[in-house]
Amino acid sequence: MSQVCNWLTVFSCMRGTPKYKLQQQIHPGRPGHFDAVIVWKGKENKKSNSGGLAYDVILKPAAGDLPRPSSPPKDKGLTHEDIVRKLQEAEERRLSMEAEKLAPIAKMRERAQEAIERSQQENEEFSRATQEKLRRSMEVNKENRDAQIQALQTRLREHLLKVEETCRKSEEMTKELEERIKQNLEQKSENRQAQIDAMVQKLKEH
């Protein structure tokens, strides 16, 4: 603004005494501040000073108050509720990670159960097919009925033994998976409780 005032002073000297007296219009809310608009003109018909320039200066009230820079938000310290909330969120994240780790074990258990059910279904289908085959065979050839029955019974016994062995192994695998899951959950629970106790102890010390 001071530079604009200097320009006005220089231009006033170059032009000479202005025809009309300029009056500054001061903004009531901002003393000493105003906006200047300079309108340049060409040569006039009347005689002017050599080397002089013609211009009009229009003063208008200054623009509205400039926006004040907003102060940065104050950083609040962590409260006891914030610490407890963060601990709970961390606990939830740990539980989610544990669930993701236990998901494969649960899937293995589900597959084992499906294998048992599939084996039982196959056994039932085989038994029905064998009985139907036995019935037809008895009707076709009564002379060889005893031999055929004995052969079929032998096959049935062998198949039942295989099914029982499969079921036994499946049950053992299921029990082993359940024991592993139980131990894993107990270990995780103990570690989690120890971490919570340690954090609570640190909070009490502070």
UniProtKB/TrEMBL annotation:
Chain segments annotated as coiled-coil in the UniProt record: 80-132
One of the GO biological process terms: microtubule depolymerization
MF term (GO), any: tubulin binding
SUPFAM superfamilies, sorted: Stathmin (SSF101494)
GO cellular component: cytoplasm; neuron projection
Keyword terms, alphabetized: Coiled coil
PANTHER family named in the record: STATHMIN, STATHMIN, ISOFORM D
Protein name: Stathmin
Lineage: Eukaryota, Metazoa, Spiralia, Lophotrochozoa, Mollusca
